[in-house]
Every structure is written in C-alpha cells, then in structure tokens.
Amino acid sequence: MTEKLTRAWYERPTIDVARGLLGKVIVRLLEGDVLAGRIVETEAYCGASDPGSHAFRGQTERNRVMFGPGGYLYVYFTYGMHFCMNVVSEQSGMSGAALVRALEPLKGAEHMRRLRGDRPTVELCNGPAKLCQALAVTRALNGLDLTGDKMWIEDDGFPPPDIVVTSRVGLSAGQDRPWRFLVAGSPFVSPGKPSLSQDKVATGARKRS
Q1: Exposed (0-12), middle (13-18) or buried (19+): which is 92, by Cβ within 10 Å?
Q2: How confident is the model over 30-52, as pLDDT tens digits?
Q3: Cα separation of 91 and 68, whole Å?
Q4: Alpha helix segments (H runs only) across the chain
C-alpha cells in the first residue's frame, strides 16, 4: 500500500529522516505527466551544530525555510548554475534538512530526458543538481509543502535497503560527519567522492564522543 509521508514523519531528527528517505519515492506532477524516482542517496545537515549546514550561522532570508516545520522543500542555487533540493526535518526552529543527492527513475523517464538531454537512464538523476534538472525543480519551489498535491514523497512498501554510510561530499567544514547515506550497490548513486576517508571519519567521530 502506497502512503504519502506525513508531517509527523518529517518532524524527526535530521539523521533519522535522511536515512529513512532511502527507498522512498519522490513524485512530481509536471505538465500533465507523473515523474517519480526512488531515493538512493541523501545527506543530513543538522543546523546550528553542523558547520556544513547553511543554518550554522543562524537564520537568513535564504535559509529561513530550514527553520520552519518539517516536510517542506528547501531549494538553493549553487555555483551560479545549479539548484539543489533538500527536505526540511525537525520541529519548527530546529533548522535541519536532508539533501536529496540521487534518484532511481521510476516514471516519466522520457520527460526527464527532455529536461536533461539524451542521457542514459542511469545518468538522469545521479547527482543533486541533475535530479533537480530532471524534475524541473528551481527556487520557485522553495518552501513547497511536501504533504500537498504538487510534489510529495511516498512509501510504496519498498523494503528497507542495505545502507552505506560515508562522509558528505564537497565540504570544507564538517567533513568528518558520517552523514551521507546511500543504497548499497545501487548504480543510480552519484559519482561524488566523500570529503574524507572512512578512517578519518571514524577518528573524527571518536574525538566528538
């Protein structure tokens, strides 16, 4: 049985949300088509306690969606050319979010291909900017309610996957946090490399404990 994720599901600790999103399905209604993809890679960004988070230095106009209740979309523009999509987590005021880094396309691949160019299916959504392009996600969707009827995330009964945990990709701060989660063996994950080796991540985790 397919169920749309509820507000209460999102209003949980960010790391739990980021891990729990693996295997869930993003659905986007676009120009009469249904575009859908299974989430195979995420990263957790834990607000004021996380130097890698946009919310680390407090609330701004850019990041204010992160400080609201869970279950909303936080979309930001990066490198002057790409959009990235985050799922807001935690209770209002806690500023957590999970970056969606890769999807396995399930429906609407031809529409995605029109948006992304004539690429193989495995390359349509294997990166945070790529999946935003494939789903036509821009800043216009920043603050979108994911419990609504334009774009949402659902549980279709897919069994919990085996999960690989690494450090996050492309960070200069908060590199040692083991907060990148991906479906083991999936060919649809991004080619991004962890910021630190597993040995250094483990060392950093021991220092914080």
Answers
A1: exposed
A2: 999 999 999 999 999 999 999 99
A3: 7
A4: 7-10, 14-20, 109-116, 128-134, 198-208
